[in-house]
Design a protein that fits this description.
CATH topology of the largest domain: Nucleotidyltransferase, domain 5
Radius of gyration: 21 Å
Largest sheet: 8 strands, mixed
Number of helices: 14
Helix content: 25-40%
Bound molecules: adenosine-5'-diphosphate
Distance between the termini: 16 Å
CATH architecture of the largest domain: 2-Layer Sandwich
Order of helices and strands: EEEEEHEEHHEHHHEEEHHHHHEHHEEH
Number of domains: 2
Structural class: alpha/beta
Shape: globular
């Protein structure tokens, strides 16, 4: 019988899931339960090779939500397994593991305590992640549950790259430091890039650009992250769909005073109303901004330039820190699909050894090298697959329990 892993990603009002058959490494179902605990709960379930099913049913909490997901997975018509016994393990995406986890772990009471201890530094993400874990454990108590952390891959950063120039006691008392996020994605594309380079990952220097709605870049030396753009929270670094990324911290106090905002409001403002959305005034979706820019909208054009410029700064800085670079990788929604943005990022970078072939770059969502033959640095487009990493870690840890 095949070894199926259920991958779960719980947000405050949503549950994303995928079932992966570890023999074939293929997804057999995926879905999204949206508006959990809010009127209008809707489950969109997609069994591989069949039509998607939409179920509307108000559900009070994550346990009821997971119950519906599990019922759907074994449903005679649109289910993908005969009974729950065919799901051998559950992998949970957890955003913040603090300094405690440099790799994925079997979930024990001790691990749950650490996830809870990180509520303070990840108030939006860790509470729903833990809620999802507890809901799944109550419904599937007899299978191993594994936590896969967004921060884990970045734990190899040296202190000179993770420390802020703030009074040292803030680190000692409150663990204020750079953590970095999207680690599972940076890890996956690093491994794929090394394979495309035809070298052991230990002999590679790679810059990975995860450009989705949230966006971050990582400098990976020999398979280990040495620096990344997201910081203490996902707000730092690149310009994102709705997040400002790097700004002068003094702007925060200035806006708080001018717009009469408290800490929670300014936090929400910089996370939800800024970035490409705030600057363009159009949308957080780069398809809309690209269309407006092409039609002559000046703010949309400026937004693209500001976005691209920030990415260039990080590439330059990371090449300096890595003292070399074999490949730059584009991944996530915009990285995989944003043809003009990729081109703009790589334009005028030939001094650094980056030369893109505009013809090869005309590609979406496919693993490919889009650099010119004579480019010193390879430029890869690699569709990310965080779920496969979570499922693989879960499988490996589950096998050790046997
Ligand atoms: P999330 O961070 O929510 O997982 P994704 O990785 O799915 O985000 O990326 C979503 C973003 O990718 C969209 O907001 C959009 O800006 C961008 N995107 C997706 N498809 C395209 C496309 N064809 N052209 C340009 N941008 C795209």
């Amino acid at each position: 019988m095949s070894f199926n892993v259920l991958v779960v990603n719980c947000g405050s009002s949503s549950i994303k899931y995928q079932v992966i058959d570890m023999d074939s490494k293929q997804e057999i179902a995926s879905g999204l339960l949206d508006r959990v605990g809010i009127p209008g709960t809707v489950l969109t379930h997609k069994p591989e090779g069949k039509e998607k099913t939409v179920i509307e049913k108000d559900l009070p909490d994550h346990t009821a939500g997971m119950q519906l997901v599990l019922e759907t997975l074994v449903h005679p018509e649109y289910g993908v397994v005969k009974d729950l016994g065919e799901i051998k393990a559950v992998g949970h995406r957890v955003v913040h593991g603090g300094e405690h986890f440099a790799e994925s772990v079997l979930i024990t009471d001790e691990v749950k305590k650490v996830i809870r201890d990180c509520f303070d530094i990840a108030p939006l993400h860790n509470p729903p992640n833990l809620m999802g874990i507890e809901a799944c454990q109550s419904l599937m108590p007899n299978v191993p549950h594994v936590a896969v952390f967004d921060t884990a891959f970045h734990q190899t950063m040296p202190p000179e790259n993770f420390m802020y120039a703030l009074p040292y006691e803030l680190y000692e008392k409150y663990k204020v430091r750079r953590y970095g996020f999207h680690g599972t994605s940076h890890y996956y594309v690093t491994q794929r890039a090394a394979a495309l380079l035809g070298k052991p990952v230990e002999q590679t220097k790679i810059i990975t650009l995860h450009l989705g709605n949230g966006a971050s870049v990582a400098a990976v030396d020999g398979g280990k992250v040495i620096d990344t753009s997201m910081g203490f929270t996902p707000l730092e670094g690149l310009v994102m769909g709705t997040r400002s990324g790097d700004i002068d911290p003094a702007i925060v106090f200035f806006i708080m005073e001018k717009l009469n905002m408290g800490p929670a409001e300014i936090n929400n403002y910089l996370n939800k109303k800024a970035g490409a959305l705030g600057l363009s005034g159009i949308s957080n979706d780069f398809r809309d901004i690209g269309d407006a820019a092409a039609a002559g909208d000046k703010r949309a054009q400026l937004t693209l330039k500001v976005y691209v410029n920030r990415v260039k700064s990080y590439i330059g800085g990371y090449i300096a820190k890595l003292n070399g670079c074999d490949a730059i990788v584009f991944t996530a929604g915009l990285g995989e699909n944003g043809i003009p943005i990729r081109q703009m990022i790589c334009d005028n970078m030939d001094f650094l050894g980056i030369k893109m072939d505009p013809e090869k770059n005309k590609v979406r969502g496919k693993e490919i090298d889009v650099a010119t033959e004579d480019s010193k640095i390879r430029i890869f487009v690699i569709p990310t697959n965080e779920e496969l990493v979570i499922a693989t870690d879960t499988y490996n840890i589950a096998m050790k329990q046997k």
